[in-house]
From TrEMBL:
Cellular component GO terms held in the UniProt record: plasma membrane
Compartment(s) of residence: Cell membrane
Provenance organism: Alloprevotella rava
Chain segments annotated as coiled-coil in the UniProt record: none
Main location: membrane
Membrane topology: Single-pass membrane protein
Pfam families in alphabetical order: PspC (PF04024)
InterPro entries, per database record: Phageshock_PspC_N, PspC
Compositional bias of kind Acidic residues: 84-93
Protein's name according to its UniProt entry: Phage shock protein PspC (Stress-responsive transcriptional regulator)
Length: 557
């Protein structure tokens, strides 16, 4: 049995079924909405309500105890077009020769709304189909699902944005505008009646209900829910990162520059804030703006995911307010980020230059600069820098050519010498090592890397040149001689693995036999001096490591 309610129309009480009252209220709201934008429209709407009250009174006189939805539908049809009623009344009052009253034109403006009556999720695709003159959104839904599968989050984000920004067609007038149909009292009446009939059919026909939640609908909902969940996860992670950044930045501000002695990234952040106090305010603005920038869409998506079907939608004013706040936050975040990055870059450049100067001073000896690893190598191996110029700027670090990570215990990583000419300068150097030797045959061997000609390995005995070997650039080739040298340099290592690594570099082993016929001071080393080389100097980089000398025979020929 249907539920009855009692209403008051112009001082008279009437019993009416609940569904009949909903239809009547919807019709009256649409009529008032239509005429509210026209001069004298309120009077026309009042006339319609008076006419409804008169017809209700007739039904009551006929003994009707509760007005049904069928009787309300009949009353709406009997009322006809309120515009025609208004024109007829005004026609009677218009004097002969007077100007005729204005006729309300039929609005045919097409507007983009979300379609709540034919939706799988938000009604965006159905609304777009009707906006562009289509009737069946199914093919477009299939294409959209396939596109979401291939683009994953991109189209999902677009859909969510459209869902949030595009209003839903709630009134009969908006539904007519969505389909591009004329908007007048007659079409509004028909649209209201059509909506009631569609609702009755949906409730009375279980098959229609099952079709509304068919396979495609379930699939679309699952995919969009997963996309929204993925977006929520990303936005939540960003939000958490911003909150952690705000806490860290605030802690650094409270700790102050005194914390710089602690060392580490936190100390650098404290020093940064003390050195650039104006930048920290831009960072705070950027963090708060970013927080709002992420929080608003995050809340909107979560609300859309778990919103109950019968809950009240967000009002247009609220949406507009959040949109304005989001746009302002976006502008502030963009501006503060650009400003902060530019100022931070200035600070970083100055800081790096300061560090470079300190590093350069710490690693310059007698006017000669080398990176710290090269100095450690020369000091530990007893090498002497005779001459070095053209390498005043810091160069790349040395990389061990024979280090085998699979056998790190048998082949520990060592340091070496790395020289690199500055831009526009030539590499000019000489390093040597001296030791007292007895007569015999000696072998000098090690690893070297050059990118051009002009670097020579030399041996001098008591100021007399004994032998030289000029290096040529090239690629490592496996041979018995090279394998023997590698076995001497790194015993117990995986020589085959090392050889495979060397084939991808410019590192090559070298060896030079030196005959000493009488004892004396043997000096050997590497040089770019023209007195030692035959070819022009073209090399700009030189590296060496594992250099040693061994006596292989007690007598010289």
């Amino acid at each position: 049995m249907k539920k009855n309610i009692t209403i008051n129309l112009f001082g008279q009480l009437y019993n009416i079924d609940e569904d009949a009252y909903e239809l009547l209220e919807k019709y009256q709201k649409n009529i008032r909405s239509y005429f509210s934008r026209r001069e004298g429209g309120e009077e026309v709407a009042d006339d319609v309500e008076h006419r409804v009250a008169e017809l209700f009174a007739e039904l009551k006189e006929q003994g009707v105890e509760a007005i049904t939805i069928e009787q309300v539908e009949s009353i709406i049809n009997r009322i006809g077009d309120p515009q025609e009623m208004e024109e007829a009344e005004e026609g009677e009052e218009t004097a002969p020769g007077a100007m005729p009253p204005p006729v309300y034109g039929e609005g045919t403006t097409r507007r983009f709304f979300r379609d709540p009556e034919d939706r799988m999720l938000g009604g965006v695709i159905s609304g777009a189909t009707k906006y562009f003159g289509g009737t069946d959104p199914l093919p477009w839904r299939i294409l959209f699902v396939l596109a979401v599968i291939f683009t994953w989050t991109a189209l999902g984000l677009v859909y969510l944005v459209l869902w949030a920004l595009i209003p839903e067609a709630r009134t009969a007038e908006e539904r007519l505008q969505m389909r591009g149909e004329p908007v007048n009292p007659s079409t509004i009446r028909d649209e209201v009646m059509r909506g009631v009939k569609a609702t009755q059919d949906f409730v009375a026909n279980p098959r229609v209900q099952s079709q509304a939640t068919g396979c495609l609908g379930i699939m679309v909902k699952v995919i969009l829910f997963l996309v929204m969940g993925f977006v929520v996860l990303i936005l939540g992670s960003i939000l958490l990162t911003i909150l952690i950044s705000m806490i860290t930045f605030g802690a650094a501000a409270v700790a102050g520059v005194e914390s710089a002695s602690w060392g580490g990234p936190f100390a650098e952040l404290c020093e940064f804030q003390s050195q650039m106090p104006d930048v920290k305010w831009w960072i705070w603005i950027g963090l708060f703006s970013g927080l709002i920038l992420v929080a608003i869409p995050l809340v909107g998506i979560v609300r859309a995911m778990f919103r109950k079907p019968n809950s009240e939608p967000m009002s247009v004013a609220t949406k507009a307010t959040f949109t304005i706040i989001w746009v302002i936050a976006f502008g502030l975040a963009l501006f503060s980020t650009i400003t902060g990055v530019m100022r931070a870059k200035t600070f970083t450049d100055k800081y790096n230059e300061k560090q470079r100067v300190v590093y350069h001073q710490e690693n310059t000896r007698n006017g000669v600069f080398l990176d710290d690893s090269s100095w450690r190598y020369l000091d530990s191996e007893g090498w002497k820098v005779v001459r070095l110029s053209g390498t005043d700027e810091a160069s790349d670090s040395f990389d061990d050519p024979l280090y085998d990570s699979d056998n790190s215990e048998d082949c520990p990583e060592v340091e070496g010498l790395h020289l690199e000419a500055d831009e526009g300068k030539n590499l000019d150097f000489e390093i040597q090592k001296s030791l007292t030797v007895s007569p015999g045959v000696y072998k000098i061997q090690g690893m070297r890397r050059v990118d051009g000609q002009g670097i020579t390995l030399y041996a001098v005995l008591d100021s007399s040149l004994v032998k030289t070997q000029e290096f040529e650039p090239g690629v490592f080739m496996s041979s018995e001689e090279n394998s023997r040298i590698l076995e001497d340099l790194v015993p117990n290592a995986n020589i085959k693995a090392i050889e495979r690594n060397l084939m991808q570099t410019q590192w090559m082993p070298f060896s030079m036999i030196v005959e000493v016929k009488k004892g004396g001071l043997l000096s050997y080393g590497f040089s770019t001096a023209s007195s030692f080389r035959r070819n022009p100097l073209t090399a700009r980089e030189f590296s060496t490591a594992y250099v040693n000398i061994m006596r292989i025979s007690g007598t010289a020929k």
